[in-house]
Design a protein that fits this description.
CATH class of the largest domain in chain B: Mainly Alpha
Radius of gyration of chain B: 23 Å
Bound molecules: adenosine-5'-triphosphate, magnesium ion
CATH architecture of the largest domain in chain A: 3-Layer(aba) Sandwich
Structural class of chain B: mainly alpha
Shape of chain A: globular
Largest sheet of chain B: none
Number of domains of chain A: 2
Number of helices of chain B: 14
Distance between the termini of chain A: 40 Å
CATH class of the largest domain in chain A: Alpha Beta
Order of helices and strands of chain A: EEEHEEEHHHEHEHEEHHEEEEEEEE
Largest interface: A-B, 26 and 14 residues
Structural class of chain A: alpha+beta
CATH topology of the largest domain in chain B: MetI-like fold
Oligomer: heterodimer
Largest sheet of chain A: 6 strands, mixed
Number of strands of chain B: 0
Low-confidence stretches of chain A: none
Shape of chain B: globular
Strand content of chain B: under 5%
Order of helices and strands of chain B: HHHHHHHHHHHHHH
Helix content of chain A: 25-40%
CATH superfamily of the largest domain in chain B: MetI-like
Strand content of chain A: 25-35%
CATH architecture of the largest domain in chain B: Orthogonal Bundle
């Protein structure tokens, strides 16, 4: 139970094609994260899966059953929204219980399931409060609780943490990871945040302009990006992308090298450059170099003392460069 | 900004302006009320004076209440006004929900069409309305008035409520859909409570013209059984003599129900008017 299959989903608003043929398979119990730039159609895809928008064409199968014409409440899903979307006039308890009440579940069962969910999320002290009397983090926990109570096969999260401050985001992220282990349910999660994506996901789906660029585990995406877009999108600081011609590489349009895969020396190396800026992050030092072929970012581990205008030599690690053709696809080998 | 707001000069100027406006607005009401408690001679001799031992008289109220039918007129006015408000709010909110929530062909044209009535007064169609009422046998019924007033109030209601409903979060409605609420429950249980201030605003803007209207009662329902208060008060205004005591007393009495309704809505109303400004 809880598997999801999407076949050639398209969605247009008027003349604007937002989703341009999406194929995706999610296995039972997987934690899948959608990432991509703003406006690429992540939320739209999530709403199509939930049944809040009808797909223009294509099929959605949840647990092997076609659900294109099933209303959202009957798809066995629950959704957590960025804006929490709690019912303002209902107490926390009633917010969590409303879905079950609508489904005609007996009061005893609703009470029991609410109790379990509120214990899981430490919401016991707030059950009688209204959403307006809660902090942002508590509200988001209630929204997650409302999803858990429904015992769905499939959880959908649309940027659930982006309205929280940094510390709370880390806590809630851990909480979601714990819930995923505990409930063993399938989860689909949209985020802008790379750290969230890399830490939570079994599988990351990188989207761009209404299409899937690549699907893979976090490390697959990091180590073997298939397109220029994925190479630039995954990893922070961004991969250095250099025009092949400037490096004397005739077959590759672009060559990529991650900042952490470059060694620095004061005396000799492949590329010569001068320091334009240094960032000390404690655990890392980020150096921005100006070279003959343009800017180059280098990430060194630990503390290093370099000054602006120092002349340095950079050497890429062997086998860590990526070459992309004129269609922005990776050149194998 | 914060400094400007607390500056005493600034705030006293604002208050002075508001007080002057209040006095101007309330003065006619005040005159009506004080004069309704005076005898006829004092009304003319000293129209601005407060009632005292010699001038105090309840003759106006006695005349009005003796007239007998006045309770009926009040009842008619109340029925017409409250039923009209109810329908204006119900249908207005439903149309506004459809316009703001659903994407369909001609959505904005439909919105424009529904709002057209704000600019074109319904009285232009009086003759046709009268013909229609005669044809359907609705002349001299309260139903006729209710129908006309509902039509009259709808354009503004649809216009205001559509704008307000656009502000209700999509996520909230979607959460309701996932929890299995029907579109009707989403409308009645999630959206309506959130636009309550706007509903109150619409209710007040709709109520006052209906309560004060003389035109349609005179044309569509002038019979004794269906007279409204405003029309009923006109019996005291003659071509040659006017019973001022009775007119003023009737008007004073007519203020009371509107005042009551206004207080009922006013808490919400203030939130409605200022909701765009603060937050
Ligand atoms: N109801 C709608 N009508 C018309 N266009 C829409 C509608 N909803 C979304 N779009 C368009 O579809 C595109 C994708 O929107 P979507 O909300 O899915 O992006 P997103 O990837 O979730 O972006 P973000 O990361 O900013 O949330 C956008 O260009 C948006 O303008
Ligand atoms: Mg989005």
């Amino acid at each position: 139970m809880g598997s999801l299959k999407i076949e050639n989903i398209r969605k247009s608003f008027g003349h604007v094609d937002v989703l341009k043929g999406i194929d995706l398979e999610v296995e039972d119990g997987e934690f899948v994260i959608f990432v991509g730039p703003s406006g690429c159609g992540k939320s739209t895809l999530l709403r199509v899966i939930a049944g809040l928008e009808d797909a223009t064409s294509g099929e959605i199968l949840i647990d092997g059953k076609k659900v294109n014409n099933t209303p959202p409440a009957k798809r066995g899903i629950a959704m957590v929204f960025q804006t929490y979307a709690l019912y303002p006039h209902l107490s926390v308890r009633d917010n969590m219980g409303l879905g079950l009440k609508q489904a005609g579940k007996p009061a005893e069962e609703i009470k029991e399931r609410t109790r379990i969910a509120s214990a899981m999320l430490s919401l016991d002290d707030y059950l009688e409060r209204r959403p307006s009397e809660l902090s942002g983090g508590q509200r988001q926990r209630v929204a997650i609780g409302r999803a858990i109570v429904r015992e769905p096969q499939l959880f959908l999260f649309d940027e659930p943490l982006s309205n929280l401050d940094a510390a709370l985001r880390v806590n809630t992220r851990l909480e979601i990871a714990r819930l995923h282990r505990q409930l063993k349910a399938t989860m689909i999660y949209v985020t802008h945040d790379q750290v969230e994506a890399m830490t939570l996901a079994d599988k990351i789906v990188v989207m761009n302009k209404g299409q899937i660029e690549q699907v893979g585990s976090p490390m697959e995406l990091y180590n073997s990006p298939q397109t220029l877009f994925v190479a630039g999108f995954i990893g922070s600081p961004q991969m250095n992308l250099i025009e092949g011609a400037k490096l004397g590489d005739a077959t590759a349009k672009n060559v990529g090298i991650r900042p952490e895969h470059i060694q620095i020396s004061k005396t000799s190396g492949t590329w010569k450059g001068s320091v334009i800026h240094v960032e000390h992050l404690g655990a890392d030092t980020i150096i921005y170099l100006q070279t003959d072929f343009g800017p180059l970012t280098v990430r060194l581990f630990g503390e290093h003392q370099y000054n602006v205008d120092d002349v340095l030599y950079a050497t890429p690690d062997a086998g860590r460069t990526y070459r992309f053709d004129d269609k922005d696809m990776i050149i194998k080998g | 900004m914060a400094k400007a707001r607390t500056s005493p000069l600034r705030s006293s100027l604002v208050h002075a302006a508001l007080i002057i406006y209040t006095v101007i607005a309330l003065f006619p009401v005040f005159l009506t009320v004080i004069n309704s408690f005076k005898d006829r001679a004092s009304i003319f001799r000293n129209p601005l004076g407060l009632p005292n031992e010699t001038s105090f008289s309840l003759i106006g109220y006695e005349t009005v209440l003796k007239q007998g039918d006045f309770t009926l007129y009040f009842q008619n006015s109340l029925i017409v006004t409250s039923v009209s408000i109810f329908f204006v709010l119900l249908f207005g909110a439903m149309a506004a929900f459809a316009l703001s929530e659903y994407r369909f062909r001609g959505n904005s044209l439909m919105g424009l069409y529904l709002a057209l009535g704000i600019m074109i007064p319904i009285r232009l169609g009086t003759v046709a309305i009268l013909q229609g009422m005669v044809a359907t046998g609705l002349v001299n019924t309260l139903t006729a008035l209710i129908l006309v007033y509902t039509a009259q109030g709808l354009p503004l209601a649809v216009f205001i409520l559509t704008e307000f409903m656009r502000t209700v979060s999509d996520d909230l409605k979607n959460a309701g859909r996932i929890d299995g609420l029907s579109e009707y429950s989403i409308f009645f249980r999630l959206v309506l409570p959130l636009v309550r201030p706007a509903m109150a605003t619409v209710a007040v803007f709709t109520m006052i013209p209906i309560w004060n209207d003389l035109w349609f009662p005179l044309i569509l329902a002038p019979s004794d059984a269906t007279k409204t208060v405003t029309l009923g008060s006109q019996v005291f205004i003659g071509q040659f003599v006017t019973n001022w005591n009775a007119v003023l007393a009737a008007l004073t009495l007519a203020i009371l129900p509107v005042l009551a309704l206004y207080f009922l809505f006013s808490r919400q109303l203030i939130r409605g008017i200022t909701s765009g400004a603060v937050k």
